[in-house]
Design brief:
The complex is a heterotrimer of chains A (about 160), B (about 290) and C (about 800).
Chain A (H helix, E strand, L loop, with lengths): L4 E7 L2 E7 L5 H8 L18 E4 L2 E4 L12 E3 L1 H7 L3 H10 L8 H14 L5 H7 L11 H18 L1
Parallel strand pairs in A: 1-5
Antiparallel strand pairs in A: 1-2, 3-4, 3-5
Helix pairs in contact in A: 3-6
Chain B lengths: L6 E4 L3 H11 L3 E4 L5 H6 L7 E4 L9 E4 L2 E5 L4 H6 L1 H6 L1 H7 L5 H4 L4 H7 L5 H8 L3 E6 L2 E6 H4 E3 L2 E2 L6 E8 L5 E9 L6 E12 L2 E10 L6 E2 L13 H14 L10 H19 L12
Parallel strand pairs in B: 1-3, 2-3
Antiparallel strand pairs in B: 4-5, 5-10, 6-7, 6-10, 8-9, 11-12, 12-13, 13-14
Helix pairs in contact in B: 5-8, 10-11
Chain C lengths: L27 H5 L15 E7 L5 E7 L1 H5 L3 E6 H4 L28 E2 L5 E7 L2 H8 L3 E6 L25 E9 L2 H7 L2 E9 L2 E2 L7 E7 L4 E6 L4 H12 L6 E4 L15 H13 L3 E4 L2 H7 L2 E2 L2 E9 L5 E11 L12 H9 L8 E9 L14 H19 L3 H8 L8 E2 L5 E2 L4 H12 L1 H13 L3 E13 L17 E7 L5 E5 L8 H13 L6 E5 L16 H28 L6 E4 L2 E4 L5 E4 H10 L13 E6 L7 E14 L4 E12 L6 H20 L30 E5 L17 H18 L8 E2 L3 H7 L4
Parallel strand pairs in C: 1-13, 8-31, 11-12, 16-17, 22-23, 29-30
Antiparallel strand pairs in C: 1-5, 2-4, 2-6, 3-5, 7-17, 8-15, 9-14, 10-11, 10-13, 15-16, 18-19, 20-28, 21-22, 21-27, 24-25, 25-26, 28-29
Helix pairs in contact in C: 9-10, 10-11, 10-18, 12-13, 14-15, 17-18
Classes of the chains: A alpha+beta (about 160), B alpha+beta (about 290), C alpha+beta (about 800).
EC number (chain C): 1.17.5.2
GO molecular function, one term (chain C): iron ion binding
Protein name (chain C): Caffeine dehydrogenase subunit alpha
């Protein structure tokens, strides 16, 4: 119905019940309904990657998903990943390497980088560049981001050894 | 940039989805992975009255081998192709192609059925299906139909699907022993739509092609299985023959003009791709740099 | 280095100084955790959203607007036309008096009668949500009478071309001619004169957060608060007040986190002005966030130039003269308030700048067209001037058979030749072209790379090397805007105070968009005061709560705002030491501050911690000696006075490979050596360079706003307008030569635009280095595969 539809989902582990308009996309639901403004909106047509979040463990563009499609899903945003400590080392590497300037792409970039590191613990620079190739950054020129991801991968590999 | 309002229906079964489509016709849009539909809706290029979400139909997601057929459900996501041992074993061309489809976050949601039904002439999966001689399985008011890829794609964003139809699966013949594959595309940036691309499947024996299927994309209004490839089958490929084939290929293509490339450039790149493909499949690097055509 | 120091403890020499050290920027965790406060995140009570209905035509007369149906939709608060908004806000004209002859027409917040580009707003829809406003937009009927669009800058001045603004008489916005030396005679005496036309794609900034503003008119206070991602809050305050009929004291501009700027957010846009006016009209907070399509259609564009260039050269490599004839189309209005003539003016100023040749003739013409407005974007004019100059130098070198490095060695201004002036009259205090070039060649191992290039060419692998020297305008004085009558401050101020627990608060008028303004301020203040950085907190971006100043643009934050911070901190240090001397019964000269404590100057023995000093001052002043009135706050301002601009210099190199069958370019490596004077934070400087280079690489390879002949922007989305992505960008190695400006104690010059200035020129020269054996030369960017294949004759 055009009328709001009930949706229940987990957001950063917290059960959420909401009535949403069918046309509301997940990015706007997170930002406007739940006030989780760390998920950024840069293009609203699925190109820039700033709105990247995790749904059921997989990264997605939240502007290309309706909130109603997230029914029954577990959604994780930058706020949740920060509070859980899951990406604390990656964030520290970004800080140390100045891998962000304006910071607008950063939440999406971190979530995408973490996705790579979960799948491929020791990616080379080309693999890092490839995995991040759908996330726009207009400030850094990308090299510092690649450095930070590479450094995090090395540190994690050392700790795992 | 917000989508226009629409009614949302979550299909509970394929039958339910077909009922909804039958009721609403071309006022409805099927929402599968949404990776093409959602941008179009956000930009208000498409404003359906009703969106039929088939995302919950788990029976449409999956990859299975039965007999000599590899069946891929419509809701199978691009990422599933990358991870599937069945695809790796029987249709590695798809795995190679998917690495070029947009970016990881898109591949996690985009579906095979969505890509085929959307029928963007620049997209990879349709051309792969042409090269792999796939059959597209459709259910509609009249029951189930099996449509060959050559019949399925009708033009830019146009297919044999009627508004009441649902694409449910695609079936591929198993590639068999000794099949060789080639996938390459020229795109401005990683993950962009290709300017020209080629998905190829070949059988090689005694240094010759015994079969060669060249599925080009972004060279016309639909994926194109090049007739010119026949010139290269069961003969010894020489630079002269390759040049002749390239000329035939250029003749066969009817590329669109867009901001990335003129028709002439697309013809040129298609012939470059074909030479590189033939050189790679026959393991004869000298053919790639021949440039004799 | 000799430097007059006001006291024995220059900040550069102090122990535990943060100057010259890489330290992480303060407050990055906020951005890393998604807890920043961008304007697009902001919500206020009763806030409504505005969406602008924009003209689909490049040039048309508005015959009628019918919003009856739209106004009836639930959730629609108001639909406002340009005529209705005129009651609240006055039009403006983007001219400056020092750009003689510059003319433009009055521009309105919302178009009245005539629309002059596709994307110009014709009505504002205010609603409870953006989605509802967009719904309503579809119900507004506008009757347009389409007019012929002026799109091609080359014919904009033809008598047969329609005049966009009848009151101006023609489509010429500005023209400047300049001549130094004797170009004709010099060309006649040269062994070769090489000519080419350089064509640049119109491109734009693509800030990842679009332009965003929340305007909040509080009718009870009669005060407008503007929350906006801007580089120049006080400029916005001045202009909003001027056109809304308010005093500046009635306008407060607040700028928190900004999602990218690059010059895009330093201008006054009509839709932002309309948003301020709507808030006043409707007496409630109004939010405008451009969507991405609007961004492409309305964020300023830049660099749409066609520049004919000529260079004279002698067989021994001596460059004798440069000549240019530059033509640029700026859209239908000169942008407000910085004007759209600056870019062409900069091109005239900068061409030939690195070289000794003193014969120079230039003409620049700036014309109106029915396309989106153009104005200042990162490295204003520099990429044009650098690409033309360096392209010509390479053409000259090729003509006389000289290595591109050698011709530069023979013509770059000698490092001991300063101070001097360029042929266009630009004053150079101290540059380091030769030291920079030498360092670059060493970093890239030029000779080895040339050998590799030759070897690979034999194997059919085609790689090229491109070199580009450049100069960059930084630290602008009032010469940029103030002298022309714009109320854009060229000075900046910093207030520093010691708080009760010994922590330090700094308020600075420069702004932060990610460059590191907060960090450099804290580094300088911490170093001068002897306070650790974590104790220093920086406030910026609030006209109520910072000193008055220009903001952050034109690579001025570190050089101007940094010097103000240094001087303010010095003043506060003196005040603190005066109090400390009284408390400790010592003299200021015997004391210093280090490690958050007052220490003995002689042996650094801790005497009293700053928090204890602050406790006494604030809570037990009764224990101080009689007559003492401690002043634990100090404010200083700074503006450059000796030089109109602090020029910097540098050189870039590109190493790339071309697939000559497909025309695809692979960037393999990029090097930059630049000289921005004193380096406050090496990492931040390097990252400014890298980010700037990649924007320049975008221009070189990808970025172009593609208009059709009817003035329609045909790639106004992120899928079709290509910017650089991680997959295609090379690693960039950055080196430095340090020539501090003597004009300040800090010695810092700007670095924000150096990367963008020379990147495209280096790439273009590298591409031509590949193509030369094929008999092809390209003087056009972006260098797309189609351009390459066409030049190679493959298609």
């Amino acid at each position: 119905m055009i009328a709001p539809i009930p949706v229940s989902l987990l957001v950063n582990g917290e059960p959420i019940e909401a009535l949403v308009a069918p046309r509301l996309n997940l990015a706007d639901f997170l930002r406007e309904t739940l006030k989780l403004t760390g998920t950024h909106v840069g293009c609203e047509h699925g190109v820039c990657g700033a709105c990247t979040v995790r749904v059921d463990g997989e990264i997605v563009r939240s502007c290309l998903l309706l909130a109603v499609q997230a029914q029954g899903s577990s959604v994780e945003t930058i706020e949740g990943l920060s509070d859980s400590g899951e990406i604390a080392d990656l964030q520290a590497a970004f800080r140390a390497r100045n891998a962000l300037q304006c910071g607008y792409c950063t939440p999406g970039m971190l979530i995408t980088a973490q996705d790579l590191l979960r799948q491929s613990p020791t990616p080379d620079r080309a693999a890092i560049r490839e995995h991040l190739s759908g996330n726009y950054c207009r400030c850094t020129g990308y090299q510092a981001i690649v450095d930070a991801v590479e450094a995090t991968a090395k540190t994690r590999a050392e700790q795992a050894a | 940039m917000k989508a226009a309002a629409f009614t949302y229906a979550r299909a509970t079964s394929v039958v339910n989805a077909l009922e909804l489509l039958a009721a609403h016709g071309d006022k409805a849009k099927v929402l599968s992975g949404g990776q093409s539909l959602m941008p179009a809706m956000n930009l208000r290029l498409v404003s359906p009255d009703i969106v039929v979400d088939i995302g919950g139909l788990t029976e449409l997601r999956g990859i299975a081998v039965s007999g000599d057929v590899l069946a891929i459900g419509a809701l199978t996501r691009h990422v599933d192709l990358l991870r599937s041992p069945e695809v790796a074993a029987h249709a590695p061309l798809l795995r190679d192609a998917v690495a070029h489809v947009a970016h990881p976050a898109i591949r996690n949601r985009g579906t095979v059925g969505g890509s085929l039904a959307h029928a963007d002439p620049a997209s990879e999966i349709p051309a792969c299906m042409a090269a792999l001689d796939a059959t597209i399985v459709v259910r509609g008011p009249g029951g189930e139909r099996r449509i060959a890829t050559a019949e399925f794609f009708r033009g830019i964003y146009e297919t044999a699907l009627s508004p009441q139809d649902l694409l449910v699966a695609v079936e591929l013949p198993l590639s068999g022993e000794g099949a060789r594959f080639f996938f390459q595309e020229y795109a401005r940036r990683h993950g962009d739509y290709a300017i020209v691309g080629l998905a190829a499947r070949a059988l090689v024996g005694g240094g010759q092609f015994t079969d060669l299927r060249l599925g080009f994309f972004a060279v016309g209004d639909r994926p194109l299985l090049a007739d010119a490839a026949r010139k290269l089958i069961n003969v010894s490929v020489t630079p002269a023959l390759l040049a002749e084939t390239a000329a035939a290929l250029a003749e066969e293509l009817d590329p669109e003009e867009d901001q990335q490339a003129s028709p002439a450039m697309r013809r040129h790149l298609a012939t470059v791709l074909m030479r590189r493909c033939v050189a790679a499949l026959l393991e004869r690097p000298e053919l790639e740099t021949g440039g004799a055509w | 280095m000799t430097r007059p120091t006001a006291d024995s403890l220059s900040v550069l020499d102090r122990p535990n100084s943060y100057i010259g050290k890489t330290v992480p920027r303060p407050n990055l965790d906020r951005l890393l955790q998604g807890r920043g406060q961008y304007v697009s995140d902001l919500e206020l009570p009763r806030m409504a959203h505005v969406v602008f209905l924009r003209s689909p035509h490049a040039h048309a007369r508005i015959v009628a607007i019918d919003a009856t149906a739209a106004k009836r939709l639930p959730g629609v608060i108001s639909v406002v036309t340009g005529r209705e908004l005129e009651a609240v806000i006055t039009p403006w004209v983007g001219v400056l008096s020092h750009l003689k002859g510059l003319k433009s027409a009055p521009q309105r917040a919302i178009a009245v009668e005539q629309v002059c580009w596709q994307g110009e707003a014709v009505a504002a829809i205010v609603a409870t949500s953006r989605a509802v406003a967009e719904d309503a937009m579809e119900h507004i009927a506008v009757d347009y009478e389409e007019l012929e669009a002026v799109t091609d800058m080359r014919t904009a001045l033809d008598p047969s071309t329609p005049v966009i603004h009848a009151s101006l008489g023609d489509n010429l916005a500005f023209e400047r001619a300049y001549h130094a030396g004797d170009v004709d005679r010099t060309f006649a005496e040269s062994d070769a004169v090489i000519e080419s036309e350089f064509v640049f794609g119109r491109h734009t900034g693509v800030t990842l957060e679009p332009r965003a503003v929340v305007a909040d008119w509080n009718a009870a206070e009669a005060r407008l608060t503007i929350y906006q991602g801007t580089q120049a809050p006080h400029m916005v305050q001045n202009i909003a007040a001027l056109h809304l009929g308010l005093k500046e004291s009635q306008v407060r501009v607040v700028c928190k986190d900004v999602g990218g700027s690059f010059g895009i957010k330093v201008h006054i846009y009509a839709d932002e002005m309309a948003t301020y006016a709507l808030s006043k009209l409707l007496r409630r907070p109004i939010k405008f966030v451009a969507d991405r399509v609007e961004s492409f259609n309305t964020d300023i564009h830049a660099r749409d130039h066609r520049c004919k260039g000529r260079i004279g050269v002698k067989q021994d490599g001596t460059i004798t003269a440069f000549e240019i004839d530059d033509l640029t189309g700026i859209g239908p209005y000169s942008m407000y308030p910085r004007t759209s003539a600056i870019e062409a003016n900069q091109v005239v100023n900068l061409v030939g700048g690195p070289y000794v040749a003193q014969n120079y003739r230039a003409r620049a013409r700036v014309v109106f067209q029915n396309k989106n407005v153009m104005c200042q974007y990162r490295a204003v004019g520099h990429p044009i001037a650098c690409s033309v100059t360096e392209g010509l130098v390479d053409l000259a070198a090729a003509r006389i058979g000289m290595d591109p490095v050698e011709i530069r060695r023979r013509n770059l201004i000698a490092d001991d030749g300063y101070p001097c002036a360029s042929p266009s009259g630009m004053k150079f205090e101290q540059l380091s072209h030769h030291a920079s070039l030498a360092k670059l060649l060493q970093m890239m191992d030029y000779d080895a790379l040339r050998a590799e290039q030759t070897a690979l060419r034999l194997r059919g692998i085609h790689r090229g090397i491109g070199i580009a020297s450049f100069i960059e305008v930084t630290n602008p004085s009032a010469a940029f805007y103030g002298v022309g009558g714009a109320k854009i401050s060229s000075q900046d101020g910093v207030a520093v105070r010691l708080d009760a627990q010994g922590s330090v608060i700094c308020q600075t008028s420069i702004t932060e968009q990610g460059q590191g303004s907060e960090s450099l301020t804290a580094q300088i203040v911490g170093s001068v005061l002897g306070v650790s950085m974590e104790r220093v907190r920086v406030t910026l971006g609030d006209t109520d709560n910072t000193p008055y100043g220009g903001g952050t643009w034109a690579s001025r934050g570190a050089g101007i705002g940094g010097e103000a911070a240094l001087q303010a901190a010095k003043a506060l240090r003196k005040n603190i030491l005066d109090v400390a001397a009284a408390i400790l019964q010592s003299t200021p000269a015997e004391l210093d501050i280090a490690g958050n404590s007052i220490v003995s100057a002689s042996d650094a023995t801790p005497r009293i911690e700053l928090n204890e000093l602050a406790r006494i001052v604030y809570f037990r002043p009764d224990t101080l000696p009689p007559g003492i009135q401690p002043e634990l706050m100090a404010t200083r301002h700074f503006v450059p006075r000796q030089y109109p601009f602090a020029f910097t210099n540098g050189v870039q190199a590109s190493w790339l490979e071309i697939d000559t069958e497909t025309g695809f370019i692979k960037l393999l490596k990029h090097w930059v050596v630049e000289d921005c004077g004193t380096i406050i934070n090496p990492q931040l400087v390097d990252e400014q360079i890298r980010g700037g280079v990649v924007q320049g690489l975008g221009a070189a390879l990808f970025e172009k706003c593609i208009y059709d002949e009817r003035g329609q922007l045909t790639n106004a989305n992120m899928a079709d307008y290509l910017v650089p992505m991680s997959g295609e960008m090379p690693d960039i190695e950055v080196g430095h030569v340090v020539s501090p400006t003597q004009e300040t104690e800090l010695g810092a010059k700007g670095a924000g635009e150096a990367g963008t200035a020379g990147a495209a020129a280096a790439v273009a020269n590298a591409v031509n280095d590949v193509l030369r054996p094929f008999g092809a030369i390209i003087t056009e960017i972006p260098l797309t595969p189609q351009v390459i294949l066409t030049a190679l004759g493959r298609i």
